[in-house]
Design a protein that fits this description.
The structure holds two protein chains of two kinds. Helix content of chain A is 87%, strand content 0%. Chain A is mostly helical. In chain A, helix 1 runs antiparallel to helix 2 and helix 3 packs across helix 4. In chain A, 3% of the residues are buried. By secondary structure, chain B is of the alpha/beta class. Chain B has ten helices and nine strands. In chain B, helix 5 packs parallel to helix 7. Chain B is globular. The chains are: A mainly alpha, B alpha/beta. Chains A and B meet through helix 4 of A and strand 3, helix 3 and helix 10 of B.
Chain lengths: 115, 223
């Protein structure tokens, strides 16, 4: 028997998977990201219907409820992703600074040559 | 001994011309870094001794200083001074700033408003600056009387080593940290700072200064 929450979550995940495949077809995602992202959501989809498995893993880790395990894992993943994005932004900022500096110095050289 | 002044400027069309003319009396060359201004700062900075480098977008004072340092390195200048574009400093202090380097006593000379004369410093600014001094001492282990003063002089050796990584607010602490790391010989000299209504409006606010510790810690964690 499928519950309403299982149905709702499945629809949402199927929609995300559909969008992911679509984005990959349009070459907006790298192959590595596509595979990791797809596996992540397929695992999620399976776990929605295998809640006993989630609960038994949670118990083995000393967590009383399966949903708590999911929340903890989600939080850890989110924090990690934010960290990665910050590192990435920092790197982009550094590159922009170098680029702008190079443009400024190059323009000055060209001007002094013209003189 | 060839000297150059690095002056970062962001929307300073009203003040930059006067600042360039004053500084030109004491220095061989001036490089103004127009940090993505949307006014006519670049045109206002024209002078026979001045070169204007233009950042196409605004990066921040730290990034502008480093662009100036790169220019000074390329051109082989012996002494580089950094100077603010808002007219807070007295150009007549430049010779005393350069002197310790000329005499071979220092690699870096830092202007200090607390050794010199401070005109109309607001109380909150005084508190924030004192906190900055303590903070810098903890992180860099250098005891200075003034750490966030933009009036400085560097010799060739110091300029070749210093690479400012903080584009915005935290760059003065970054400079002090690099001075400490490279064990440069530092001398502080008194300089006069004038807190005018214009400079107070244009300068970093006290609230923005609070960002500095966070920026330093964040950068340290990310790199």
């Amino acid at each position: 028997m499928i519950t309403f929450s299982q149905l709702l979550l499945s629809v949402i995940i199927l929609f995300i998977i559909f969008k992911t495949v679509d984005a990959y077809r349009k070459r907006m995602l790298s192959a590595t990201f596509f595979v990791v992202w797809l596996l992540f959501w397929i695992t999620g989809l399976i776990l929605i219907f295998q809640q006993d498995l989630v609960i038994s893993i949670a118990h083995r880790l000393g967590i009383s409820r399966g949903v708590d395990l999911v929340i903890y894992l989600s939080l850890i993943t989110l924090f990690y992703l934010i960290y990665r994005i910050m590192v990435w932004l920092n790197e982009i900022n550094r590159k922009i600074t170098e680029l702008v500096r190079e443009i400024a110095l190059r323009e000055a050289k060209q001007k002094s040559k013209k003189k | 001994m060839r000297t150059i002044a690095v002056i970062p400027a962001y929307n300073e069309e009203k003040k930059i011309s006067g600042v360039v003319w004053q500084v030109a009396k004491y220095i061989d060359r001036i490089v103004v870094i127009d940090d993505g201004s949307i006014d006519s700062t670049s045109d206002s900075a024209r002078h026979k001794k001045a070169v204007v480098l233009r950042h196409p977008v605004n990066l921040g004072q730290g990034a502008a200083l480093q662009t100036g340092f790169e220019y000074a390195k390329e051109q082989g200048f012996d002494v580089v001074i950094t100077y603010d574009a808002d007219g807070q400093f007295e150009a007549s202090d430049i010779p005393s700033l350069i002197r310790p380097i000329a005499e071979g006593r220092a690699d870096v000379v830092l202007g200090s408003r607390f050794l010199g004369r401070v005109a109309d410093i607001p109380l909150m600014r005084l508190i924030v600056l004192r906190a900055g001094i303590i903070f810098t001492y903890i992180f860099s282990n250098i005891r200075l009387s003034d750490t966030h003063n933009g009036f400085r002089a560097f010799n060739k050796k110091a300029i070749s080593k210093i690479d400012i990584q903080h584009d915005r607010w935290a760059h003065p602490s970054d400079i002090i940290y690099q001075i400490s790391k490279n064990r440069f010989r530092v001398v502080e000299v008194p300089v006069t700072i004038r807190y005018t209504e214009y400079s107070k409006r244009k300068g970093q606010s006290n609230l923005e200064a609070l960002r500095i510790p966070f920026e330093l810690i964040a950068k340290a964690l990310l790199e």
